[in-house]
């Protein structure tokens, strides 16, 4: 009679995750790795998500997950209380009460190969990829070539088709008819990388969380030309990583013989915070300000 396989301890799953996303590659300010959980507790189900929100934690508990793996940290800044009167405290309490361990791969997942930006570049079909820049000796962002040159408007439509839908959609700064072929990408917030993008020679830069002043200055520096800018949303540009992380974890566990003992799933919860927009005009590029008190 064959003996049933022993439970896989959390420490083994964590070791597999940290072989893929080493903690020492994270930025100094980041807070990654094991947040809750006992290294000796058994892991039979792993849920992968972008954000450790209360709704995602509830999903993990309802499914019976023993481990939640997320990209964004739960406790990035100092916390002096985990009382349930705050969302952070309620999250920690929910994890502990349900016996769910939490492991975070943030900037260490950004610079991994493949990492967050690699997955985004692959989704956009970029060829001959190379790093956009380096962080502490590790690659950050990607630059690659489209199979053929296309109009900026068509490229933006392709970006929208490759990423999950969001209420805010895709924001673009540039001439819709201009042709683009070289693309830089940075999953998540990326308006601190404009110098790197210019140095890369990219025609267009796809990232998220683009703020008014950095974008205006970047477009002024470009004199209206390249690089054009595409803001595809933080959640959308990073969400694709969850499936990649899940698949890579399964492969790592297979090498150690543990994959058959662990069930994995990508969260079905959309943690995109925006729910609707009003008054968007996708084609507007007039430079006239509205009349005071008027409607634009």
Automatic annotation (TrEMBL):
Domain of life per record: Bacteria
Keyword line: Metal-binding
Pfam families attached to this UniProt entry: DUF34_NIF3 (PF01784)
Transmembrane segments: none
UniProt-listed Gene3D superfamilies: NIF3 (NGG1p interacting factor 3)-like (3.40.1390.30)
InterPro entries reported in the protein's UniProt record: DUF34/NIF3, DUF34/NIF3_sf
Family of this protein: Belongs to the GTP cyclohydrolase I type 2/NIF3 family.
NCBIfam families, sorted: YbgI_SA1388 (TIGR00486)
Quaternary data: Homohexamer.
Protein name (Swiss-Prot/TrEMBL): GTP cyclohydrolase 1 type 2 homolog
């Amino acid at each position: 009679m064959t003996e049933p396989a022993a439970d896989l301890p959390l420490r083994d799953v964590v070791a597999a995750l940290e072989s893929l996303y080493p903690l020492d590659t994270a930025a100094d300010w980041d807070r990654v790795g094991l947040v809750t959980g006992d290294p000796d507790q058994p892991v039979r189900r792993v849920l992968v998500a972008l954000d450790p929100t209360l709704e995602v934690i509830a999903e993990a508990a309802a499914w019976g997950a023993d481990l939640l793996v997320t990209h964004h940290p739960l406790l990035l800044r100092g916390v002096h209380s985990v009382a349930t009167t705050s969302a952070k405290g309620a999250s920690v309490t929910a994890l502990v009460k349900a016996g769910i361990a939490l492991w975070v791969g943030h900037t260490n997942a950004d610079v991994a190969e493949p990492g967050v930006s690699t997955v985004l570049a692959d989704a956009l079909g970029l060829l001959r990829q190379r790093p956009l820049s380096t962080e502490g000796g590790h690659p950050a962002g990607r630059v690659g070539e489209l199979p053929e040159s296309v109009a900026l408007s068509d490229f933006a439509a392709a970006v929208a088709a490759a990423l999950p839908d969001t209420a805010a959609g895709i924001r673009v700064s540039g001439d819709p008819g201009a042709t683009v072929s070289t693309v830089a990408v940075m999953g998540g917030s990326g308006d601190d990388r404009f110098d790197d993008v210019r140095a890369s020679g990219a025609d267009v830069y796809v990232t998220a969380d683009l703020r008014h002043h950095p974008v205006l200055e970047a477009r002024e520096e470009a004199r209206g030309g390249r690089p054009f800018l595409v803001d595809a949303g933080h959640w959308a540009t990073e969400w694709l990583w969850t499936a990649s992380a899940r698949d890579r974890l399964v492969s790592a566990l297979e090498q150690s013989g543990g994959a058959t003992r662990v069930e994995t799933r990508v969260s079905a919860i959309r943690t995109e915070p925006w729910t609707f927009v009003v008054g968007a005009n996708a084609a507007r590029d007039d430079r006239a300000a509205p009349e005071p008190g008027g409607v634009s």
